[in-house]
Inverse folding.
């Protein structure tokens, strides 16, 4: 997450150590784990699919993903989460990484 002096809205950005391909891969893996967890927790074949545990596990995985990939890409896992702050700050540097990574996994 890049925050500069006087900037009130933090935007996502790639760390200096991360290449564009690495950013796409990181965001794709984080999105995959989140989407897989949501689908697995709501599987009608499981007995516990209607309980509260699905929401707890999904929140846990989202938090772990943010902590794990946040220092490298900001941990967006959702193109909309990156698009809103980018419009406000007019900062679209490497913004397509946050669209291509998750969309490659979900499609």
């Amino acid at each position: 997450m890049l925050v500069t002096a006087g900037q009130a809205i933090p935007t996502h950005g790639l760390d200096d150590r991360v290449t564009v391909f690495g950013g796409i891969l990181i965001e794709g893996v984080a999105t995959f784990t989140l989407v897989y967890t949501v689908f697995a927790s709501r599987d009608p074949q499981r007995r516990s699919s209607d309980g509260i545990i699905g929401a707890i596990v999904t929140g846990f995985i989202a938090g772990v993903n943010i902590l794990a990939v946040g220092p490298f890409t900001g941990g967006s896992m959702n193109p909309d989460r990156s698009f809103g702050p980018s419009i406000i700050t007019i900062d679209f540097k490497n913004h397509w990484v946050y669209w291509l990574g998750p969309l490659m996994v979900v499609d």
